[in-house]
Amino acid sequence: MSTSDSEDYMSSKYLVEVPQTSEHQTYSERRRKKLQTNSGYIKPRHVLDKESLEQGLSRRIDTEESPGMRILMKMGYEKGKPLGKESNGSGLTEPLPVELKKGIVLDRLGIGMSAQIKRKAQNELDKAAKQAKIEEEVFIERMSKERMTRKLEGQLNKIRKMCQTLDNRKEIQYNIFWPQLEEDDEQSKDVPENSLHASEDESEEFEKLPSKEKFDLILTYLRDQYHYCFWCGCEYNCAEELLEVCPGIKEDDHD
Predict the structure, then answer these.
(1) I need a labelling partner for 212 at 20 to 30 A (CA). Which of 29, 38, 90, 199 fits?
(2) What sign does the dihedral 113-115-120-124 (CA atoms) show?
(3) How far apart are CA 204 and CA 202, in angstroms?
(4) Is the distance from CB of 182 to CB of 123 less than 8 angstroms?
């Protein structure tokens, strides 16, 4: 046989066209599809259970073939009418829907346990929200106290300086109500004759007082000695004018 008479194995005679598929399938998918086309194919247990469940859920239970419906009809129930104690026709006309439990954990729980878990989770959320609200209120209260403290310290510093200014006009050389001296100035501080509360013990006791008490003491001192109102920011001519013109001794009185 000549070379020209030899068969061409690359010709279309020996080539088989590969069928085109719309999508790539794995070996398991191809094997499953092949088994399904076989008349002897037995479906897996989980597939049968799923089909049986879907078939059962799709079947209505209010048909005359249902044992429950037959019992109700024997008791006088008419199909299509509401079911319940309400006499005005507002009872149930449709069976209660079936709620499937999802997840391995919930499927192993008894009746009502899923609702209990949801209720417990909701309680935890409510508890966390309540705790967050409490923490927010505590934070707001703490910030408010800090602002009030800074405000009071600023007012105390101003009124002590004003006390020193008014005392100096009367040639008073020292008063424990004045701003505190620096450590370097302590050495040069004497106890002059024309001084108020000049003893070291009185000064130490005064500084130990809360800022609000120190402020109130200086405020009263300025009103009594100089008819000066810190909130009005002015000095009146006499006590009668102070009582008549000044709205009051408190800051809120001047709003």
Answers:
(1) 199
(2) positive
(3) 5
(4) no
Output the pLDDT for position 71. Answer: 82
Backbone angles phi, psi at 57, to 5 degrees: -70, -30
Indicate the SS3 state at residue 171. coil
pTM for this prediction: 0.49
**Would the pLDDT of 17 be above 70?**
no
Tokens of 231: 């909130």
Q: Is the pLDDT assigned to residue 239 strictly greater than 70?
A: yes
Question: Taking the chain, what is the end-to-end CA distance rounded to the nearest angstrom?
Answer: 125
C-alpha span between 61 and 72 (Å, rounded): 12
Radius of gyration over alpha carbons of the chain, in Å?
A: 48
Which of these, 182, 181, 176, 171, lies nearest to 197 by C-alpha position? 176
How far is CA 49 from each of CA 17, 43, 89, rounded to the nearest angstrom? 41, 10, 39
Return the structure tokens found at 26: 């794995």
Q: Is the pLDDT of residue 10 over 70?
A: no
Q: How confident is the model at residue 73 (pLDDT cuts 50, 70, 90)?
A: confident
